[in-house]
Amino acid sequence: MFILLVTVALPVNADNCTLRVAVAASFRPALERVLPEFERRHACAVQISSGSSGLLYQQIAHRAPFDLFLSADRERPELLEKQGGALANTRQTYALGLLALWHLKSESNIEQLLQIWLGKIVLADPEVAPFGSAARQVLQSLGLWEEKQAQLARAHNAGQAYLILDSGNAQLGFVAASQVLAAGRDHFWLLPQHLYNPIEQQLVIPTQSRRPKKAQSLADYLRSAEVQLQLHRLGYGVLTAQYRGSGL
Questions:
Q1: Is the pLDDT reported for residue 9 higher than 50?
Q2: Cα separation of 114 and 9, whole Å?
Q3: Closest alpha carbon to 206 in 215, 214, 198
């Protein structure tokens, strides 16, 4: 069963070209911001299916008809590559995710806030969502993971975690920095990056892709200097030289 299919408006002369892209929920807002220029340049429409990286990986591993997979981690693209589910030499890093803590009130000490907080703490499912895994690492780094178990409210993915917080159904939680910036929110803190492993977001072209060359064009576009500058403004880390090569 496929998740949340969103068809972006067709550009002029794109009738005969459609790319099917599976994208991690946290990256969807940024992707939608940069896609129109790609569609215009390449006269190719892009259909987006978004969800947790883990669930999208499972769909692709079962031969779901996607042309490009934009994961929020490197683990799933690596698995596809090892299992023969990805075209050779297509795995690349396209973004570095940043984890943020959402809270409506101003607090100066994030660690103390997490320690004394008695309400729900929202996070994406650590087992399938990279930002959830990063949130778990933060709580583990602070020695709070076991202590806070009863308070944790697990969302399916980073997108759902954000919606729970934005709707007011919870007041504290972990989200992707890009999500709150895209929504124009300012009540969040970027968490110190030493508290969690780098959220290296990688892409790969599945073996079942019907348009591998066009998929590679989109991959190259996302890694271009102009798009990387936009992504930095949207809450992503700087893609340094160590990630600018093949990403392998």
A1: no
A2: 42
A3: 215
Structure confidence by residue, pLDDT tens digits, 134-193? 999 999 999 999 999 999 999 998 889 999 999 999 999 999 998 888 888 878 899 999
Instruction: Show the tokens assigned to 2.
Output: 């496929």
Residue among 123, 124, 127, 2 nearest 75 (CA): 127
Residue 168, by phi and psi: left (phi above 0), alpha (psi -120 to 50) or beta? Answer: left
Question: Could you tell me if 26 and 56 are in contact, meaning their C-beta atoms sit under 8 angstroms apart?
Answer: no
pLDDT tens, 111-141?
A: 889 999 999 999 999 998 889 999 999 999 9
In 3D space, the residue among 20, 68, 11, 19 whose CA is nearest the CA of residue 39 turns out to be: 11
How far apart CA 202 and CA 248 sit, in angstroms, is 10
Distance CA 157, CA 210 (A): 28
Output the pTM of the full model.
Answer: 0.78
DSSP 3-state assignment of 25? Answer: helix
Closest by CA position to 14, among listed 43, 46, 48: 43
Residue whose entry in the numeric block shows the structure tokens 């576009």 = 221
State the CB neighbour count (10 A cutoff) for residue 121: 23
Helices (H), the chain: 28-42, 53-61, 75-82, 110-116, 130-141, 158-166, 177-182, 212-222, 225-233, 241-244
Q: First-to-last CA distance in the chain? A: 31
Q: Residue 109: pLDDT band by 50, 70, 90 thresholds?
A: confident
